[in-house]
Amino acid sequence: MKAYEWSGVRYGAAYYNEYHQARVTSDDGIELAARTDEDFRLMREAGLSVIRVGESVWAKWQPAPDRFDLDWLQPILDHAHECGIRVILGTPTYAVPRWVFTEHPEVVAHQATGSPVPYGHRQNVDYSSAAFRALCQPLITKIVERYADHPSIIGWQIDNEPGAYLLHNDGVFESFKAALRREYGTIAALNSAWGLTYWSHALRDFDDLWRPDGNTNPSYLLAWRKHQAALTNEFLQWQRELVRGLISPEQFITTCVAINRPGMDTFTIGESLDVTSVNVYYASQDGLEHPTRKSSPGVAAPAPIWVPLTGASALNMICDTARGIKQENFLVTETNGSSISQGAAMAAFPHYPGQFKQAAINMVSRGAELVEYWHWHTLPYGVENYWGGILPHSLRPGRSFAAFADTAAALQKIQVLGRITPAAEVAIVYSSTSLWAQEFQGSLRQPNGLVDPKSYERTLQSLYEIAYSAGLGVRLIGDQQLNLADPAGFAAAHPALILHAYAASDALLTFARDYAAAGGRLILPPRTGYVRDDGVMRTEVAPAGFVEILGASYNEYSNLNEPLQALDTDGNLVGAAYGWIDQLELDTDSHATVLARLDHPFFGDFSAVIEAPHGNGSVTYLASYPDAALGQWLGARLARQLGHEQPVVSVASSVITNRAKTAEGRDVFFVFNWSWNTTEATVISISNRPSAAIDLLTGERFEAGQRFGLSAWGVRVLLVD
Length: 721
Hints:
By secondary structure, the chain is an alpha/beta fold. The protein has 17 helices and 32 strands. It is 28% helix and 21% strand.
């Protein structure tokens, strides 16, 4: 048996008994220092099957350089085993004790040159340094050797949420210069590639390279980010090799990924992991509505600052991103237990009734095989004391506990599905390089006129909603992951591809053209391939590589201060475009079809959406970003082109169906109502045959054509006969 090989869904929470060791007595007489029995009783009552422990308390494992305390976790693991609860044990390398800072200042992370991160937070170390790894190795070895054979343990989490800082330590800068030497060979080659004649930045040798603080060269910025991501991957690989040599093959290795941390590449970080584990935090209450009330994606109350996007599509997209990291099903090791706030007024938005279960089943529908909440106890102290757990500050079970238990019961009912494969007719290329590039050269503006550093994520969601609104499944794939893909095979598996890559290699653009020629429907958003993947502007006529195919090009572009209405060729309103426009002009002999224009005295002279045939497929160019209505129009059109059948129909736009197949090939439909309104939906025929389905949550059977109800924030799980 290989590491990580289970079928179905497990359910749990992070459990930190060690945080409740203070001699405090609650109103009902339960001493918090002795909560273990009560906690595990409640876990059994609620249907919990997995806990995550140990990753945050280096100081408890090693109170002093020469003293280790390894026994404190034994009672927790023994309790778990007795209760049939499995455990993921974390290595505590992301939260270091004070003595490490005072005795080893050389390992302290520098967030700018000469500016060490002050003590008082976490992840404040230079994990690339040999000195830090020398501190970590005996700690990790002792923990793993002590508990590797414990029967409760199914997996190991190495570190936690890596890539929190961009490291500016001297050693990091020297390794960056060394990496540039290996890549470019000569300083002349670097000067040429980065265009360092500009502003007299040309270098005499690699040691002349300036520090990253205040740098303005785009190529330098991208190279620096790629190097930071490589250091993060190297650290995880080092821990993986250390841990793997001490554990059984049946135990898996993972880490808890916080997507889009500054020092990581989302689509390479999984290389050291047996299975992907992620944080899936989302805006609850009205932040889960679909359709969203906003004209364009982005932060809107209620949403904490660490949740950059809102709406049901954002939750779905995070899950598809998680599955894309290894192109396999994944684990959710953190998600909303209640309010997710670091201050009472920051984001105190607990779930509406039904949303707790709804969100969990949405994760499962997109490939989650563990749903684990952060965390079991709400903490009475520390910066995360308003980050709500399953139990409140009083530790008395309340509404969140009841929702937790209800969700556990629902997930138990769908275990019959086993391992599912989510539908994915549409692939979307995710480019970390483009994400970094658009942090400083983004398409969207903030109200103060500066670049919106979340431009890539916000425009990604607007493109994602084209598929989501049409009920088409999405596969997010990193641009590097396409290197080994066969264009024809990829087109057969994913008949539509959205290339969201502002910074693109020549190879990626070639793949996209070959994909369309092989029969795929290729969709290009604004600024596709406008710069190379090293941050240098292309000098070809834009859109590079597609001018001849489209019979169209642009030389100018513009911000859009306000959304502009989009009209089809008959003059009907089909939505709006926002943020940006490539001023696309058709050649006189173009074979492209104009699908939409903008209602504006100037921008109306340019095509907003065009489509041209290419080989056995087609290329569609979006000159601007679609709002929700235009995305729905484009999605409906794409669904017709693909011959997609809606398995479940509803007059309510709040109803979205996620589709998957079981290992036996049976269809399963996860039907969500993302609104306060009760509504109805209808099961229709699938693949031109009458189809009946059973709701695994209620046991109800619905024949083809039969209506069924959907409560506010309700969900149905329909297994098709």
